[in-house]
Specification:
By secondary structure, the protein is an alpha+beta fold. The chain has 6 helices and 6 strands. Helix 1 (4-17) runs antiparallel to helix 3 (70-79), helix 1 (4-17) runs parallel beside helix 4 (114-124) and helix 4 (114-124) runs antiparallel to helix 6.
Length: 183
């Protein structure tokens, strides 16, 4: 994939399908340019046996086609930079996917338009709470839909056009004041 944000969209889609009520997406880059992506959910989780096979493209609960590619592609994107991907899951509790990337590698795929990815996720699942953080040693960008929901009250959907426009601007401002979202 051309942008890591598309892998994020894909793998977070699994959390949505798993019935998660809360999803955490964090990007954390250290001073050496090692980037850690972590996606956590409180969805249905997977058995040990499924976790063991989950990075194999032929493991899928899809019925429309027999090949699931979300996790194998993230694993590939990570490993081609010298990083690795780990999936931890417990049936009935949830799942955490962690992938590391060496941003200095020529095979590192830039993060790209993570704002669009977040907005797409929120519009598609306005009832799910998302906690997004993007940290480098210099800055932190953060969006917590729980905080937003508390301010908006129950009447207003997070997916409504005004709220979506606000979220876009809120995130853009945080990135712009700290040097942009592209890595
Ligand atoms: N967060 C999760 N919670 C519960 N099950 C998961 C989770 N992530 C993955 N799985 C299980 O692992 C399988 C493989 O996921 P993967 O994203 O690789 O492929 P897919 O979702 O089946 O297909 P695709 O992503 O190509 O549309 C899923 O079908 C699902 O059964
Ligand atoms: Mg998937």
């Amino acid at each position: 994939m051309k942008e890591l944000s598309l892998n994020i969209l894909d793998v977070t889609g699994n959390s949505v399908t798993a019935g998660a009520k809360n999803i955490g997406i964090s990007l954390t880059e250290d001073a050496d340019g090692m980037l850690t992506l972590q996606i956590t959910d409180d969805g249905c989780g997977m058995s040990e046996e499924v976790v063991a096979r989950v990075t194999d493209p032929f493991t899928t609960s899809r019925t429309t086609r027999k090949v699931g590619l979300g996790l194998p592609l993230l694993k590939l994107a990570s490993e081609q930079t010298g990083g690795q991907m780990e999936v931890r899951s417990k049936l009935g509790e949830g799942t955490t996917v962690t992938a590391t990337f060496d941003t200095k590698s020529i095979d590192f795929t830039p993060v790209g338009d993570v704002i669009s990815t977040l907005v797409t996720l929120i519009m598609g699942s306005p009832d799910i709470d998302f906690l997004f953080t993007d940290r480098t040693p210099e800055r932190e960008v953060r969006l917590d839909t729980k905080e937003l929901r508390a301010v908006l009250g129950d009447e207003v959907s997070l997916g409504s056009p005004d709220v979506i426009a606000w979220i876009k601007e809120y995130l853009s401002e945080q990135y712009n004041s700290t040097g942009g979202q592209d890595q």
